[in-house]
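Hi all, long-time lurker, first post. I run a small reading group and we've been trying to get comfortable going from sequence to structure in the token notation. Rather than ask abstract questions, I figured I'd post a concrete chain and ask someone more experienced to write out its structure so we can walk through it together at our next meeting. Sequence below, copied exactly:
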Amino acid sequence: MHILVLDTIHGGKEIGDTYADAGNVVDVVDVYTGTTPETLKNSKSRTYDLIVAPVHMDPDHILLSNRNTLIITHHEAVRRLLGEKLPVPMIEITGSRGKTTTAYALAHILKGNGVLHTSAGTYAYPSKNLLWKRSITPASVLTAARYANKHSGWLVAECSLGVTGAGDLAIITSAEDYSFAAGKKRAIKEKIASLAHAKRILVAEGISCEYGNVVHIEDIARCNGMNCTVGLDGNYYHLTNPLFSLPPYRTPLMLAAAAALMLNADPTPLDNFTALPGRLSVSYEKELIIVDNANSGTNIATTECAVRYARHLSGSRELTLVIGQVEGDGAVCEGFSYDQIISAIEKVSPTKVIWVGRIPDTGLKSNLLVKDSIDVHCTTLEEGRKAAVEKTNKGSIVLAVKTWR
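-- Answer (accepted) --
Happy to help. Here is the structure in token form:
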């Protein structure tokens, strides 16, 4: 076949190389930064047997519109390329927030050899040795699956904007929706569509998914404070962990417990699961409590939760908020917009504000007010944390910077 694969930046090269290794003729085009001008020019007039495009690409792009050729997503291409030789079990996780925590919690449950592929890194289990750090584009699942197969292990993989549907279980962790692909697609709709080939499906509360093989978390799990009960097919477990009382952990841990039951695994190891770095983990410096909530899923809700948690732990309303989005962090697909950052600051009323990243010059009154309230302006999370420790004498510090971790 003659195949056109679009978007080298988000995994197109890996997909193209895999198709070429299988004996196909492949053209791979960088549609965003222009590093393949000759191939781009030629591909406009060539006839292809198949076109592979990322789900986030504008459907009216010149290389996609008015084509009679079959067009599939990167997710679907990876499903086809993986074929029948898959890790056992293989679980894919997508969603606007909670992906990483759900993935780590499930890996904490599963026994034996395995691979955990997340935005924080790809790790071999049970040693937890770092294998590599790559994005969570669908193409990254190819390499993770190959490694898991080589070591006869399971695979738990985060995937952005949907799943490949190749494995034993697909999970959507949150119902949050937003537009993308030049405003022409909706995130939750595309994520649900990607489940079409999944053997079994597990979804968080609030997701309307009509496939016959779907389990809705609200039907099988209940939480009350630090206690959680989960039951499926006659198997019931009572779990206890203080993290169940924290909203950013509650749903991911419930999903991990439910996934364990769907995979015939024991979920009770979750009783000793601990907070992840950057996801409400707590540290101490200069007698200050520091709640770290800086990750790729940081938003208004998680910031508010982190602030409540920090004030509860410190017993004081004195709080320094380190907030923003690291400029140029292309790994963060779903942004923490300027308006959202302003709203978060207004809602939590911090004593001091350390801003990380660019401050847009909008000219609006709200922009001037925020600029006046900023105590320090930094470029990186590390700079922001250091400045917060220097500027804070009592109470707590919350790190709420959206960044790749």
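A couple of things your group might point at:
The domain at 83-272 is CATH 3.40.1190.10 (UDP-N-acetylmuramoyl-L-alanine:D-glutamate ligase).
The two ends are 39 Å apart (CA to CA).
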